[in-house]
Design goal:
Layout lengths: L10 E5 L5 E3 L2 E3 L3 E4 L4 E7 L8 E6 L3 E5 L11 E4 L4 E7 L8 E6 L5 E5 L11 E4 L6 E5 L8 E6 L4 E5 L11 E4 L6 E7 L8 E6 L4 E5 L11 E4 L4 E7 L8 E6 L4 E7 L5 E8 L4 E7 L8 E6 L4 E5 L14 E2 L4 E7 L8 E6 L4 E5 L7 E4 L3 E3 L4 E6 L3 E4 L7 E4 L5 E8 L5 E11 L14 E5 L6 E8 L3 E9 L4 E10 L2 E8 L4 E9 L2 E9 L2
Parallel strand pairs: 33-38
Antiparallel strand pairs: 1-4, 2-3, 4-31, 5-6, 6-7, 7-8, 9-10, 10-11, 11-12, 13-14, 14-15, 15-16, 17-18, 18-19, 19-20, 21-22, 22-23, 23-24, 25-26, 26-27, 27-28, 29-30, 30-31, 32-34, 34-36, 35-37, 37-38, 39-40, 40-43, 41-42, 41-44, 44-45
Length: 535
């Protein structure tokens, strides 16, 4: 499991242009396949040339990594290959030498005593491969911060010693000697993920153990060390693992694939470092790598996994309550997908998917084709206690988090509030949007309403007998302005007509000390302003 969002690939091989494929509202365009070296097994995503577009690196078991520079539209330049040891497998990226350029870490299965680092130049290339000695071969790798020195470190699943190996970074692309943290007997780590599982702001590790049919959790101390591994019974042959908060309780949860039972299992965290099995969902045949994204833009975590033997991807929409909508396995890729990554490859704000196809020497890219739902408001900045209308567009039907199924809703928030909407188009594809309605307590003498910033100011205030009301309209509007005393009795109708955009001054004269209320309505939006007279 990569610690960053993971993604696609490679030199152009074949492009298919057909209708969307869809699973329970998740839609992708048909696969576009890119050629790699033989036996691609791992993917990672980053910006390796500083152009703000997602690029991809792929670990090939024939001794190289392939770098694909993204065009920002879902396509990629042909692969450039770099030597990466013997039988590369796990791959991750990070800035290991603090030069603000992404580097690559890759494990070697065929060379049991090394992992390799390739330092990025920031121009879409890498320097020479540097090998670092390990006491045993490692399969999985993840880059993260395990102590407080601000240098990236590396965690490896050491299958040769049934342990997790920690390499603390020196900040210059090299590492201090390894430290191994033992797993229970017969535990062979296959994949690992990072997270804060006990809410102490320190990085922890969860690792799947294929032969022991469990997973282990190692809680970090924040000093580069970890506590004794605790076992979590899961199911037969757990393989891939990913971490996120799937039920919105603020605690990290886990999603784990089982290659033998063709399923993913969701384990809910309690925030103390322990997990309980929540639910299990059917996948395709032989699920392996799993990753996390928000495919329909509803603000809830979804998951996708590759199915090695059925040559497809299973995608599951999250409900936000710790469960998923069952998947339909119709996202076809090429032969024996072993790994997948999720990232936005065409800069449309939606997560796309890549799968590394081990037997096809290719990577399949699936571009998210969810509709882009737009939301507009009648009040960009709303005064506390007033209403606005939110209107969604571009889809056929809508569901708001308020429960409404209308394209428009009227809201009256008292604080700035997020509103989530999911739209469904005619093909059944779902896309979402999260709109923030800004609310402020309007300052004395000024308020904002309607689509433009109309301003009302009373000066001076407080005043002796005479004051002025200044009104600035940025658009044509119907204006009603009345003055009341503290008992609610009408004192004066100041204005009541349709006004053109511009500035208007209204002199006001009242007698005696007291409090008055100036009530102004502009295009149906009302505010009440307190004005004070003094002797």
């Amino acid at each position: 499991m990569k610690t960053n969002l993971r993604s696609i690939a490679a030199a152009l091989m074949l492009t298919l242009t057909a209708a969307n494929t869809r699973a329970q509202g998740i839609c992708f365009l048909p696969q576009t396949n890119f050629t790699t070296s033989i036996a691609p097994v791992g993917t990672a995503v980053g910006d390796f040339n500083g152009d703000g577009k997602r690029d991809i690196v792929v670990a090939n078991q024939t001794g190289s990594i392939s770098l694909f520079i993204g065009a920002g539209n879902g396509s990629f330049a042909p692969a450039v290959n770099f030597g990466a040891g013997v039988q590369p497998y796990g791959i991750d990226v990070g800035d290991l030498n603090n030069d603000n350029k992404l580097d690559v870490v890759v494990t070697n299965l065929g060379n049991p005593n090394f992992f390799n680092v390739l330092l990025g130049t920031g121009t879409g290339s890498f320097g020479a491969t540097t090998a670092f000695t390990l006491s045993a071969k490692a399969k999985a790798v993840a880059v993260g911060f395990f102590n407080a020195d601000a240098n990236l470190d590396v965690a490896l699943g050491a299958s040769g010693t049934n342990s997790v190996t920690i390499m603390l970074g020196a900040g210059n692309g090299s590492f201090f000697p390894e430290t191994n943290f033992a797993l229970p007997a017969n535990n062979v780590p296959y994949d690992l993920t990072l997270g804060d599982f006990n809410n102490d702001t320190k990085t922890d590790i969860a690792v799947t153990n294929y032969t022991a049919s469990n997973l282990c959790v190692l809680l970090g101390t924040g000093t580069g060390s970890f506590g004794v591994a605790s076992s979590v019974p899961t199911f037969t042959n757990p393989y891939g693992i990913a971490s996120s908060d799937f039920n919105g309780d603020g605690n990290a949860d886990l999603a784990v694939t089982s290659s033998s039972t063709n399923s993913i299992t969701l384990l809910m965290g309690n925030g103390a470092g322990t997990f309980t099995t929540s639910s299990t969902y059917t996948t395709g045949n032989g699920p392996r790598s799993i990753s996390i994204g928000d495919f329909n833009g509803d603000g809830k975590k979804d998951v996708a996994c590759v199915n090695y033997f059925s040559q497809n991807i299973s995608a599951f929409l999250g409900t936000g309550t710790g469960s998923f909508v069952s998947a339909t396995n119709i996202f076809t890729v090429q032969s024996n997908p072993n790994d997948l990554s999720i990232a936005d490859f065409n800069n449309d704000g939606k997560p796309d998917v890549v799968a590394a196809n081990q037997a096809s020497a290719s990577i399949s890219v699936l571009i998210n084709s969810a509709p882009t739902v737009t939301v507009s408001t009648t009040n960009t900045l709303l005064c506390e206690g007033y209403s606005a209308t939110l209107t969604a567009a571009t889809a056929n039907s809508y569901t708001w988090n308020t429960g409404s199924n209308s394209s428009s809703i009227v809201i009256s928030p008292t604080i700035s509030t997020n509103y989530t909407i999911v739209g469904t188009n005619g093909a059944g594809c779902q896309g979402g949007s999260i709109f923030t309605q800004s609310v402020q307590i309007c300052p004395n003498g000024i308020f904002f309403n309607t689509k433009s910033e109309n301003k009302l100011n009373v000066f001076p205030n407080p005043f002796k007998q005479n004051t002025n009301v200044q009104l600035e309209l940025l658009e044509k509007a119907k204006v009603e302005m009345t003055l009341y005393n503290a008992l609610g009795q009408l004192i004066e109708n100041i204005e009541a007509k349709l006004l053109e955009a511009g500035e208007y001054i209204y002199p006001i004269t009242v007698g005696g000390e007291g409090i008055y209320i100036l009530r102004t309505t502009i295009n149906g939006y009302r505010t009440s302003q307190k004005i004070i007279t003094i002797e």
